[in-house]
Amino acid sequence: MGIAIYILTFALLLVGIYAVVAKKNVIKIILGVLLIDYAVNLLLVLVGYRSPTGTGQLGKAPILAEGESAAELARTAVDPLPQAMVLTSIVIGLGLTALMVAMAVRLYEKYGTFDMDRIRRLRG
Amino acid sequence: MGIELFIVVLIAFMLLAALVAVEARDLLSSVIAVGAAGFALSVIDLLVGAPDLAITQVVVEVVALVLLIRVVLTRDDTSVTSARDVLRTGAVLLGAGVLLAAVFFAIGGRGIPQQGGGTLPPFGQPVLSHAPDAAVPPGVAADYLERGADQTGAVNTVTAVLLDFRAYDTLGEATVIFVSILGAYAILRRIGRRRDASTPDQEEGTPS
Amino acid sequence: MNQSGMTLIVKNTARLVSGFITVFGIYIALTGHLTPGGGFAGGVILAAAAALVVLSFGRESSSKLITGPACHVADAAGALGFLVVALLGYLAGDFFINFVPLGQRHHLASGGAIPLSNLAILIKVGAGLAGAFLALSAFRLAPRPDLTGGEEL
Question: What phi and psi, each to the nearest 5 degrees, are found at residue B55?
Fold first, then answer.
């Protein structure tokens, strides 16, 4: 079951790469970059998961509760390092989307279309 | 095994939404499909034990949807279907095949990963931190989990890692966000008020 | 009465709700060291509240409240504030060291300089994204002829 999870995540990455490379509409290219971002964040979060041990408790979030000891947290909690990486990556993805949308708006305003072939022809 | 099955179902839903987004004729449908994929990703974050990521993913998804819909909604829909470029599609499919083969060997197609067949760890055993009672010394993340509340005073270990143990990376990330917003300002800074007149009849400046 | 922006129902709802969203965003950012959240999530929620106001009231009416230069200044101030918190760590020895004495655990005043960093990041991310959204909404693409009244954005 673990292998199926990783293969599906890589398939999502492939769909994003396909959209960036083989599509002619600027909005579809932007959506492809967004899908690549989702797939990479998903893979990083899934790598850090710790499955429940014999007690049947789910892998807990790395937050210390009221009367818990630090050693017990270190034994049952999920890995916090990939989560910290992905938190910054998500907000950077939003900045990237804002930048790409700004470029798309300017392209539409100048050429009147979102089609890359027509833009190439009109640019002369 | 219930949670793994649930995660597989959600990732399959994300894949389906991604395929719909890439191949749909209407741009608004594509944008909404990507929004659905983002919400499914937020639910997966909750199941894997990352509530910070779930909150941030939902809010970022909503703002990105607002931005994209605003761009998509105001153009008149003349969807052009040109002939598909055979060479380009072939190159993409070949690249996809090579990538899948690399993934297969990385995961360990020749053997079961527990027996040392591949390089990715099996699902459920994190890479950066082993359990403290294993034979190998624990990784750096177990150290952070134990020392985090004492040294930083923050109960949330992810915040302690982001803002105290690894604060340089957060400084770098604030710089990246700053530069990307500055780039968006620089692109959009212009005489954007040329169309400020309320009559749409003067709207003929763009070539169709 | 309704020259700019959306209908009266939307405007009244936005008046009621946008205050709550702002307070919620500030709450999530300031208690980032106790509960899940942090400065980045809070900043994006703040930007979403600003987007709600700009979308409901139209660009000209809301530009009296949320102006472009104010967003630029707040953005730069937030980034500078984060750097100042980092440099103040030199008071305790080195770059980025926690210089505020740690309080009681599970209380709001624990965590040393972490709530200050969260506040700086909240201002920076919120103002930056709100300003980007404002700049984006100043562009009118080709308007659709079937929308009555012509949309303002």
Answer: -60, -50
Half-sphere exposure of B56 (CA within 13 A, CB side): 30
Cα-flanking dihedrals φ and ψ of residue B80, to 5°? -105, 130
Give the residue among B49, B53, B1, B127 at the shortest CA–CA distance from A60: B49
Asked if C133's CB is within 8 angstroms of B76's CB, the reply is no
> What is the spatial distance between Cα B18 and Cα B37, in angstroms, rounded to a whole number?
7
Neighboring chain C residues of B204 at a CB cutoff of 8 Å: none
Q: Which residues of B touch A49 (CB under 8 A)?
A: 48-49, 123-124, 126
| Side chain identity at residue C19, one-letter code | G
Collect all residues of chain A within an 8 Å Cβ-Cβ radius of residue B149: 64, 70
* Cα B85–chain centre separation: 29
The span from the CA of C149 to the CA of A99, in Å, is 30
Neighbours of B94 (CB within 10 A): 10
Paired tokens of B155: 């109960």
Name which of B119, B200, B61 is nearest B110 in CA terms. B119
pTM score, whole prediction = 0.84
Condensed to tens digits (0 to 9), the pLDDT of residues C14-46 reads: 999 999 999 999 999 998 888 888 899 999 999
Contact present, C79 and C126 (Cβ < 8 Å): no
Answer yes or no: is pLDDT of B13 > 90. yes
The radius of gyration computed from the CA coordinates of chain A, to the nearest angstrom, equals 21
Q: What's chain C's Rg over C-alpha atoms?
A: 19
Q: How far apart are CA A103 and CA A43, in angstroms?
A: 29
Query: Which residues in chain B (63-122) have CB-CB distances under 8 A to chain A?
Result: 63-64, 67-68, 71-72, 75, 80, 82, 85, 88-89, 92, 95-96, 99-100, 103, 107, 113, 120-122
> CA distances (Å), C83 to each of C41, C44, C51, in order?
20, 20, 27
Contacts of B160 (CB under 8 A, 6+ apart): B144, B148, B149, B151, B152, B154, C33, C114
Name which of A99, A105, A110, A111 to mutate to probe chain C: the one with the most chain C Cβ atoms within 10 A of its Cβ: A105
Counts of helices then strands in chain B (DSSP H, E): 7, 0
List residues bridging with A60 in a β-sheet.
A77
The pLDDT tens digits of the residues spanning B117-155 come to 456 666 777 666 555 555 555 677 778 888 877 777 788
Cβ pair C141, A108 in contact under 8 A:
yes
DSSP codes of every residue in B4-19: HHHHHHHHHHHHHHHH
Which residues does B101 contact at the CB level (< 8 Å), separation at least 6? none
Which tokens go with A10? Answer: 């890589």
CA angle B51, B56, B59 (to 5 degrees): 130
ipTM of the modeled complex: 0.90
